[in-house]
Amino acid sequence: MDTTATAAPPASAQPLYRQLAAAYRDAIEDGTLRPGDRMPSVRMLMQRHTVSLSTALQLCRHLEDEGWLEARPRSGYFVRRRLRARLPGVVEPAQDQAPDPAAFVGIHATVSAVIAQGQRYPAALNLGGATAAPEHYPTEALKNAVLRCLRQSPTLLTTPGSPNGNPEFRKVIARRALDAGIRMTAEEVIVTHGGIEAVNLALRAVANPGDTVAVESPTFFGLLQVLESLGMRALEIPTSPSSGISLEALELAIATYGNIKAVVVVPNLQNPLGAIMPDGRKAALAALCERNGIAVIEDDPYRDMHCRTTPPKALKAWDRSGNIIYCASLNKTLAPGMRLGWMAAGRWQARVAMLKFAQSRHNEEWSQIAAAGFMATSAYDRHLQRLREHLREQRERIADTVAASFPPGTRLSLPDGGAMLWVELPGGLPSRLLFEHALQAGIRIAPGSMFSNSQRFDHFIRIGCGHPYSPELDAALRRLGALTAQLLDGAGR
Amino acid sequence: MDTTATAAPPASAQPLYRQLAAAYRDAIEDGTLRPGDRMPSVRMLMQRHTVSLSTALQLCRHLEDEGWLEARPRSGYFVRRRLRARLPGVVEPAQDQAPDPAAFVGIHATVSAVIAQGQRYPAALNLGGATAAPEHYPTEALKNAVLRCLRQSPTLLTTPGSPNGNPEFRKVIARRALDAGIRMTAEEVIVTHGGIEAVNLALRAVANPGDTVAVESPTFFGLLQVLESLGMRALEIPTSPSSGISLEALELAIATYGNIKAVVVVPNLQNPLGAIMPDGRKAALAALCERNGIAVIEDDPYRDMHCRTTPPKALKAWDRSGNIIYCASLNKTLAPGMRLGWMAAGRWQARVAMLKFAQSRHNEEWSQIAAAGFMATSAYDRHLQRLREHLREQRERIADTVAASFPPGTRLSLPDGGAMLWVELPGGLPSRLLFEHALQAGIRIAPGSMFSNSQRFDHFIRIGCGHPYSPELDAALRRLGALTAQLLDGAGR
Fold it and tell me: Is B230 exposed, middle or buried (0-12, 13-18, 19+ CB in 10 A)?
């Protein structure tokens, strides 16, 4: 890492001070600049980067706002000890014992109850979601793209759409997939009604009701609902917040139960853990499943929300035999209101195309054309860069406030991207209790009981980081921390 | 019927001469004016209806164009013998023997082959579809509704949509359902990605893989594909072009096989027959299924394309116990490019809502808002009236040309609405043969083999009537007739 930070990212549309801030932040994160170190003076910054006084000041104030620096009167700026450093990471799961046997999923009642309870407090600040606020998405540009498309081709509204999806959209998706290490043709892309339909179709293609499907534990409750609705059994595999699904536990499960039809994984920014599987583990997972005749369903809707210098690859990049069905969507990264998902189904391509046609036909055409137009340009890259930057800031500030306001024993692993934090409550405090008290205080969170068919994560909560940090959000987090302490005291008594 | 035809439809936006033409056509159809009868002279028409010479002339010429009148030199206009009267109706199915046992469906290969073959001739005139041409839909009005909606609320693109559908759209759907005799609240409406998703969800709610589902025979190939994709067995019940599914055969099947989980019916303008079940039979079907604990799935996407004075009612109007799941869409009646379907699931409401959420989440919001805005006004009624009028004309002219150009022994039942004709070829001529020869001649039709899991309808074709009648269409139909005669000769040799 070059601490002189003269190399700004080439295609960046960010103001100069933010480009410089990113470089200094990296220097702090990788330890080149350490807590207590003195920041170069404003005059030195002006000389070193050939920038104006105003830019140098903006740089320092921005890093201060973000909590990286603190100003000491008459001495200048110093690197601050990050509050969240006080929080230990979430406990890693044990990997040396076989997971619980597969079970039919009975999560719907739990999830419905949580959602219904939440809806009774419509005014509550919603920290239960995993979607960013609308201001983080290119609303105007997308609107203009849709308007342009419909003005040019209004009969798109009154003509049946293209089978398997709009050709231009499929082309852009295939081209963008190169960034994830996936080489596929536009013809391999099947457009779906959101990522969730893709996962449904993938499961229906490779497994039947009653079959066992291995999933990460904890996992996205939506996946558990899909398994429940399809009458499939879930085998929960311990999953690490740092390295993803445990290959050791998966191998043990294969050896112990031996009837696993498929495994569903979110290798990049796993929901709710935020784990990104290292390349080596991705390669090993792909090989393990191929060797054992287990189909892999990769759900990859969050990848573009990473904040790494080298973009994480899709698991599909290691697919050598068409054994991996790749599913993704634009729901989190571009437009939460557009139901645009897609998949590439490997050796199940024909079967998935048949199931998709029978299930819901093609998607509406103009959404695809509008998205394709936007995604074909560098405006999409600039949007993603901004989104990542905002989310990073929001995750870090929320983590800092959690560190400052939650009682000791609280644990949290800060992920390298995404819009959520997974928080372990101290003393095994049941998160449904906190969920209910928080709702009454006007705050909605997602209790850990939604993320597993077992009770293993009942003392976790997921906090959404999609909202810009604000005094209201700050107060809500502090209130959550105080409630946790209060409930913990009550429980201890 | 008042043959003086002074009472024009009140809310009509049609030119006067067309309103008058409709009344005279009714008089011919109900026999008040008979073939060979002399039409009132132009002068008499002017006096009787207080119209201009030009309107009276337009009236006569329009009826002549449509084939209702013929001009005899120096004698005026006479009611013409309709050509299609020469065609006998499709043979009614036998009802006194138990249907074939239920079987797993293997239609996908057939349908795919037909579709793939068709796609190899992209320039062919497509008479294989059941959708009307774009010019029959209110493209401009819908476009403006979408533009207005997105200009007003662009964040619809970047905010998750409403669960179960947009409230305004659900309200309009519930209000419009009154016209079909259905009383339901907006909360009962679940919006789906097209009618086909509704049928999928309904089947998944009431039956499991391996279960037997009774269907009409012949039936829409899309339904057979859904059953195949869900691993359910189809029990084909003989269905009459005049009165719909045979209750006698259904009762016999219940008595013989006794394991029927559900019956799927299209009671209004059945695809491909065009049958509208009489009220009495609808009531009897609802009662029969309720008595026998068989769930009813009503697929009703064509109802608004009827051309009857009294709108046909939905089967759901006779539902007393929540035993009927009602499915419909706007795909055929308003906007083939918008994937807007909906359902009301009776006693399976909660299960269907769960399945819909797990399968594909909510629909895109702006399509629903735009459709709701249009459907809330009388513009929608005017559109439907025009659509019905155009389709009636197209059906009749196509039927006339079929009657004039196909060899003797050809049969056809003219339905009271919709955009398709079901034609029985003479001499058991295999329709796949005609399909293939027609493709080479640049004409696409739907062969009867797509509409049943059996071979029973292999000598039928479905002709789409969605295109405005044109010299090109006329020539195509005559060519089809000539090809049929030719192939019949070849087969006879």
Answer: buried
Instruction: Note the pLDDT tens digit of each residue in B223-261.
Output: 999 999 999 999 999 999 999 999 999 999 999 998 999
CA distance A446 to A462: 5
Name the domain boundary from A35, A66, A81: A81
Q: What is the CATH number of the domain that holds B445?
A: 3.90.1150.10
Residues in chain B with CB shorter than 8 Å from the CB of A361 are 193-194, 196, 339
Residues A304, A203 within the same domain: yes
Q: Which residue has the tokens 């195309």?
A: A353
A138 neighbors A339 (Cβ within 8 angstroms) = no
Q: How many domains does the structure of chain B reveal?
A: 3
Same domain, A376 and A284: yes
The interface pTM score, or ipTM, of the predicted complex is 0.88
CB contact under 8 A, A155 and B140: no
Q: State the DSSP H helix or E strand holding residue B214, giving kind and residue range, or none if neither.
A: strand B212-217
**Cα nearest neighbour of B160 on chain A:** A337
Q: What is the CATH number of the domain that holds B36?
A: 1.10.10.10
User: Do the chains contact at B354 and A112, CB–CB below 8 Å?
Assistant: yes
Per the domain annotation, does A2 fall within a domain? Answer: no
Tell me the nearest-neighbour CA distance from A49 into chain B, angstroms. Answer: 38
Nearest CA in chain B to A205: B229
Summarize the confidence of residues B286-312 as an average pLDDT: 96
Give B57-69 pLDDT, tens digit per residue.
Answer: 999 998 988 778 9
User: For the segment A373-432, what is each residue's pLDDT rounded down to a tens digit?
Assistant: 999 999 999 999 999 999 999 999 999 999 999 999 999 989 999 999 999 999 999 999
Q: Do A354 and B229 touch (CB under 8 A)?
A: yes
Distance CA A250, CA A303 (A): 23
B118 lies in the same domain as B141: no
Distance CA B235, CA B96 (A): 16
Domain membership of residue A424 as a residue range:
113-135+381-492
Same domain, A335 and A430: no
Q: What is the pLDDT confidence band of residue B8, given thresholds at 50, 70 and 90?
A: very low
Residues A415 and A334 in one domain: no
- Residue A85: its pLDDT value, please? 63
Report the CATH number that the domain containing residue A225 is assigned in CATH.
3.40.640.10
Both A244 and A340 in one domain: the answer is yes
Q: Are B268 and B243 in contact (CB under 8 A)?
A: no
Residue B98 belongs to some domain of the structure: no
Helix (H, G, I), strand (E, B) or coil at B376: coil
Contacts of B150 in chain A (CB under 8 A): 143, 146-147
Q: To which H or E segment does residue B359 belong? A: helix B349-360
Nearest to B197 among A131, A336, A359 (CB): A359
Same domain, A251 and A353: yes
**Based on the domain organization, do B192 and B302 belong to the same domain?**
yes
Of residues B192, B225, B337, nearest to A160 (C-beta): B337
Beta carbons of B336 and A360 less than 8 Å apart: no
A356 in a domain, yes or no? Answer: yes
Calculate what percentage of chain A has a pLDDT beyond 70.
Answer: 96
Put simply, the answer to whether B134 touches A158 (Cβ < 8 Å) is yes
Per the listing, tokens 């002074």 go with: B6
For B186, other C-beta atoms within 10 Å of its C-beta total 16
**Chain B residues with CB inside 8 Å of A157's CB?**
137, 139, 142-143, 146, 335, 337-338
Q: Could you report the per-residue pLDDT of B434-476, keeping only the tens digit for each?
A: 999 999 999 999 999 999 999 999 999 999 999 999 999 999 9
Closest CA to A111 of A264, A253, A226, A252: A226
Q: Determine, yes or no, domain membership for A37.
A: yes
Decide which of A380, A396, A430 is a domain's last residue. Answer: A380
A200 to chain B: which residues are within 8 Å by CB? Answer: 358-360
3-state SS class at A41: coil
